[in-house]
């Protein structure tokens, strides 16, 4: 009786994995994405209520970075360097951060619907921000709106982690339920604060903040989120193998030597801290951490060694484009960025659902 041949590595790999990993290395797609990000940033800086030529944008940025060359006009320099470039870079940082957090959460809790706001972090930040805007900083110990939002995010994270524990361990299903429940609770409290404020201008400011906005971007408030995305993003990319193990299930992760409970807590805390920093400077921007990981996964597959770095670049490009649309669609007014991400994200997510059912 002939013996069965030893299966090759490709045969041993699940069929879905073979079908979903057409690219065998993230540099294949990462290099053109980096170039696309740079072009997108320059285009976004050049477009606005006052147009600036693309070559002028490049010249202004190069002059400031190198300190050589003939300075551009004062108005162009002010528009490019002080007004638009910080905002565009903040959009890139927030998009990259939300995308990498979304990838991390979906692997950590093994739920494709997980995103940076499923844990109630955004709602907790929104509640504290609304209190600050409507009642003044004295109501939150003198904290600014951004600082109060970050504190609210930390409190929400601690509450969710506490409610999701059973027998000293965090249960992913309880984590999601606790996050959704606390999101409703914090959102209700936010609505009550707005209702009781009696100040139409304050209510409008809270609503605009809750829907997300990058209009307050400046070099001074860009440093912290950019540093957080770089440090936390690099840390999460280095955890790619661990995320692969967690995505395969707790038993598989344990067999590979992963201390599941401890690692899950650490990844959730890190992801929540980064979400808190991003929410504090941008408000509530939904769907980025949900949609981008799914779209990238279709191209590079489920391996987090490729998925994480590519998701960072795609998230940055996506939010820069969305922020540009917010600035130009209803000029001279500006759309809250959360409206555009929801309008674009919901149809894409429905398409992903239909595609998963058909496959």
Write the layout of secondary structure elements.
Layout: H1 9-12, H2 15-19, H3 27-46, H4 54-66, H5 74-108, H6 121-135, H7 145-163, E1 165-166, E2 169-170, H8 172-197, H9 200-210, H10 223-238, H11 240-247, H12 250-255, H13 260-282, H14 288-300, H15 304-328, H16 337-358
Antiparallel strand pairs: 1-2
Helix pairs in contact: 3-4, 3-5, 3-15, 4-5, 5-10, 5-11, 5-13, 5-14, 5-15, 6-7, 6-8, 6-9, 6-13, 7-8, 7-13, 10-13, 10-15, 14-15, 14-16
Describe this structure in words.
- The protein has 359 residues and is an all-alpha fold.
- It is built from 16 helices and two strands.
- The protein has helices at 9-12, 15-19, 27-46, 54-66, 74-108, 121-135, 145-163, 172-197, 200-210, 223-238, 240-247, 250-255, 260-282, 288-300, 304-328, 337-358; strands at residues 165-166, 169-170.
- It has a two-stranded antiparallel ribbon.
- A hairpin with a 2-residue loop joins strand 1 and strand 2 (169-170).
- Helix 3 (27-46) crosses helix 4, helix 4 (54-66) crosses helix 5 and helix 10 (223-238) packs antiparallel against helix 15 (304-328).
- The protein is globular.
- The two termini are 37 Å apart.
- The relative contact order is 0.16.
Give a concise summary.
With 359 residues, the chain is mainly α. The protein contains 16 helices and two strands. It has a two-stranded antiparallel ribbon.
Q: How many E-type strands?
A: 2
By secondary-structure content and strand pairing, the structural class works out as mainly alpha
Global geometry: globular
Contiguous low-pLDDT stretches (5 residues minimum) are 1-24
Mean pLDDT: 85
Strand order of the largest sheet: 1-2
Q: State which percent range the strand residues make up.
A: under 5%
Q: Main sheet? A: 2 strands, antiparallel
The N- and C-terminal alpha carbons lie at a distance of 37 Å
What share of residues is helical?
Answer: over 70%
Figure out the total of helices.
Answer: 16
